[in-house]
Design a protein that fits this description.
The chain is built from ten helices and seven strands. The protein is α+β, with helices and mostly antiparallel strands.
């Protein structure tokens, strides 16, 4: 494994509900410290000018079912309503949807060093790229997986990050180790 790949895998990551992060940690694609989003980031706050602020830990289901959001920002409500399954919508959060990593099978494969993991090229360019981007404008052709990001972008939404309240490192003494079958994993 290259130093660049190890740096990407061990970088700190945000955790909202942990739906996507849990899978990446299980498969060894994420081993760094976890930055928990604070509990004060739940809900929709309406400003005097009619604009809304949606907290990072607000569930997708809450966004989809909010009648005031649906009236003021129908694209955001429609994106939330069409996202995944009802079970996922009730668990997933806006912050998690925005922070999730690429669904590219080359990125998700621990044996392949793609650009996003510090590799020299994007294997999706010459390999199987059926579900990747339609516009080839950059070195990596893996699309961002967030449905909500596109809806928020359409409304020229702005993200704001306050300093993290907690940094949770689940495994302080980490190193990379090969599991049976060639899969890599994070271990103590």
């Amino acid at each position: 494994m290259s130093v660049a790949t190890a740096d990407v895998i061990s970088a700190p990551e945000f955790r909202a509900a942990g739906t996507d992060l849990s899978e990446r940690r299980r498969s060894g694609l994420s081993c760094g410290a976890i930055i928990d989003l604070g509990p004060d980031t739940i809900g929709v706050v309406w400003n005097a000018d009619g604009s809304a602020r949606i907290g990072a830990l607000t569930t997708i289901a809450a966004i989809a079912s909010d009648p005031r959001l649906a009236e003021a920002y129908p694209g955001i409500a429609a994106a939330a309503q069409g996202l995944a399954t009802p079970q996922i919508r009730h668990m997933a959060t806006l912050g998690g949807n925005l922070a999730q990593r690429s669904r590219c099978w080359y990125f998700r494969n621990p044996q392949i060093a793609c650009l996003k993991k510090g590799g020299a090229d994007c294997p999706a360019r010459s390999g199987n790229h059926l579900y990747h981007v339609t516009f080839d404008l950059g070195p990596c052709v893996a699309p961002h997986p967030s449905t909500m990001a596109m809806a928020l972008l359409a409304y020229d939404a702005k993200g704001r990050h306050r300093p993290a309240q907690r940094l949770v490192d689940l495994r302080p003494a980490r190193r990379r180790q090969q599991r049976r079958g060639g899969q890599s994993a994070c271990v103590r």
